[in-house]
């Protein structure tokens, strides 16, 4: 039963987690001007599903469960039965003794698990066995015997490979443990990198460094390069709030997007965009006075954007 329930449980949990994260991602996408969040959405779904299934597996492991022996099918009867379905008791007549002997013989022959072909043929020769049932049992015995002859070499090869693998693992135990530890650390580093990427840790740090370098210290380049630096610092401020500039978008298109969400910064954004366009497309490079105006506009935008 567990074999059939596990895939169903995994599918149900994955579907529910995906539905919840998809709803949240739609809200984020509306707030972020259509920014693509498919990669982070897939990682979040997989991580949440794995966490839920891992928790369920842990609870399943620590709670009492039915043993495999109680779920195992056993051919035949554990004891002889008298007419009427009652168990025979030893010492109550020849019939009960015969039934008990037959039960003991059948129980020792059948054992637990799937019966052998000899056990099946012996069961088919029981007194009172219907012909159709005896024929079916003999057919199953023949089929089981043929299958055993085909599977036996494969199983022997598999067992030999498994033994060789265990010997190799035992001989290289330290190397295997070191490799597994390295893979675990690598997986943790990759997960940490994805987490920092989704959290925009690099952009957050760079916006602070930009403000310290350009806004406070005024340490930027001269001319057009300085204008590019100040405008790029402003772009990173809004990229941290999921309002990044599209690669194919013009400064005026980006200005319209920003003003639709931050109308309170419309004057500063408009002036900074105009100065950047003059520096980028104008005939003369900007002088120190214009760069100072751009720096002050950037400082006001940075302070009010949070």
Task: Please explain how this structure is put together.
By secondary structure, the chain is mainly alpha-helical. Among the domains are: 1-26 and 38-50; 201-305, no CATH class. The chain is 74% helix and 0% strand. The chain has helices at residues 2-31, 38-62, 94-110, 117-124, 131-171, 173-199, 201-216, 223-239, 251-261, 266-281, 288-305. Helix 1 (2-31) runs antiparallel to helix 2 (38-62), helix 7 (201-216) packs across helix 8 (223-239) and helix 10 packs antiparallel against helix 11. The protein is elongated, with a radius of gyration of 38 Å.
User: So what's the overall shape?
Assistant: elongated
- Could you give the order of the helices and strands? HHHHHHHHHHH
What is the radius of gyration?
38 Å
Could you estimate the helical fraction of the residues in percent?
Answer: over 70%
Question: Low-confidence runs (pLDDT<50, min 5 residues)?
Answer: 72-112
Average predicted confidence as pLDDT: 77
Total of DSSP H or I helical runs spanning 4+ residues? 11
Largest sheet: none
Global structural class: mainly alpha
Strand content: under 5%
Count of beta strands: 0
Measured between the Cα atoms of the first and last residue, the distance is 55 Å
Short description:
The protein has 306 residues and is mostly helical. It has helices spanning 2-31, 38-62, 94-110, 117-124, 131-171, 173-199, 201-216, 223-239, 251-261, 266-281, 288-305. The protein is elongated.
SSE blueprint and pairings:
Layout: H1 2-31, H2 38-62, H3 94-110, H4 117-124, H5 131-171, H6 173-199, H7 201-216, H8 223-239, H9 251-261, H10 266-281, H11 288-305
Helix pairs in contact: 1-2, 4-5, 7-8, 7-11, 8-10, 8-11, 9-10, 10-11
